[in-house]
Design goal:
It is built from 14 helices and no strands. It has about 350 residues and is mainly α. The chain has one domain.
Length: about 350
């Protein structure tokens, strides 16, 4: 909105020419998201507390988690506000990719909100079948649109990390593959959201990585130099990713240990879906598995635990997802959180190095 209002003035006042640059708008979108979080956070937390929108803690988990019972949840509303408003303010709203990621964010946010609401009011959330069906439906709509209305001829090709000349074309199979990326990422983030600040930290790191990837993929010269697919218009997603970083940092201010608020499914599902959608648009779907490797590890720990118990009657971990395993082994919660953040940073650095090592 600001881009459309102020950039045309550059013909009379040269200072407004800065609105032309994605880097400028990304920086201020990030700061806007951070400021909104700081301004709205205390008010929203107070409102959630008054409405008694408190978290219910499972008795099966570590006993010290019972102290968190009643902490306001659905804090994802703060993230969504701080993510959507700056994106609309600072992005080029004629760019279709901006609307695609916003659609993914809002749609999965509604699914998460409905699930959280049912948990609070009826003590039971959506059935797993309904929840997954809605996620697949939205992801399918996004995937079909990107497949049938491509920006260039590379829509169904995959960029394989470390390999510059190997780009398998999935053809129509790209649609279920893209659905899997979006749904898998949103649920991976959801599973990771079990400790104070544990999920939002890696999300910030992943968003920072894709902020750089979006800019490079949307810039023809840089894309050609790095031998990655140039996706026309993808550069505008740099602003969205920057806004995600700002909104995430603002939420972390209140979600850091000991948390004043939890994001709930209202936050984890839309953030994961947004990240997966950005990876698909920028043609770095496989790289997401490295950037968001922590989410992959958390998801695999649950799959391994369930399969082992059903097939052998034995558990591999003390508890799944894996962050609870380390808690039960005696690690303090802050230690688990910070060490998992460190792992996320390492994985993000490895993923960025693949842009040159090919």
């Amino acid at each position: 909105m600001l881009y459309h209002l102020l950039y045309p003035l550059h013909e009379r006042y040269s200072i407004f020419n800065v609105f032309r640059y994605i880097t400028f708008r990304t920086a201020y979108a990030m700061l806007t998201a951070l400021l909104l979080s700081f301004l709205l956070g205390p008010w929203l937390i107070d409102r959630l507390r008054r409405l008694r929108v408190g978290e219910t803690i499972r008795e099966l988990g570590p006993q010290r988690h019972q102290l968190k019972a009643g902490t306001p949840t659905m804090g994802g509303l703060l993230i969504l506000l701080a993510l959507i408003v700056p994106t609309l303010l600072w992005s080029d709203l004629t760019n279709r990719y901006v609307w695609v990621v916003l659609l993914a964010t809002v749609s999965f946010g509604l699914i998460g909100f409905a699930d959280d609401y049912l948990k609070l009011r009826k003590k039971k959330g959506m059935s797993i079948r309904l929840k997954f069906s809605l996620q697949i439906l939205v992801a399918a709509a996004i995937s079909l649109y990107l497949y049938y209305f491509p920006a260039n001829s590379y829509t169904s090709e995959l960029t394989v990390p470390f390999l510059k000349n190997f780009r398998p074309n999935l053809s129509w199979f790209y649609i279920p593959f893209a659905i899997g990326v979006i749904v898998g990422t949103c649920n991976g983030v959801n599973l990771t959201d079990g400790l104070d600040g544990l999920a939002i930290g890696p999300l910030i790191i992943s968003a920072m990585a894709f902020m750089g990837i979006s800019y490079l993929a949307g810039h023809a010269s840089f894309a050609n130099y790095l031998m990655i697919i140039n996706v026309k218009g993808a550069g505008e997603l740099t602003i969205f990713c920057g806004t995600m970083v700002g909104a995430g940092l603002g939420f972390l201010w209140f979600n850091a240990y000991p948390a004043q608020v939890f994001m709930g499914d209202t936050g984890s599902l839309p953030l994961g879906a947004a990240l997966g959608t950005v990876a698909i648009i920028t043609k770095h779907e496989l790289l997401l598995a490295i950037v968001g490797g922590l989410f992959v590890i958390e998801t695999l720990s649950v799959i391994i635990q369930v399969c082992s118990f059903r097939l052998r009657g034995r558990r591999v971990f003390n508890m799944a997802p894996i962050h609870h395993h380390y808690e039960l082994k005696g690690w303090a919660e802050p230690k688990v959180i910070v060490r998992f953040w460190i792992i996320s940073i390492i994985l993000a650095l490895i993923s960025l190095s693949t842009l040159k090592l090919r």
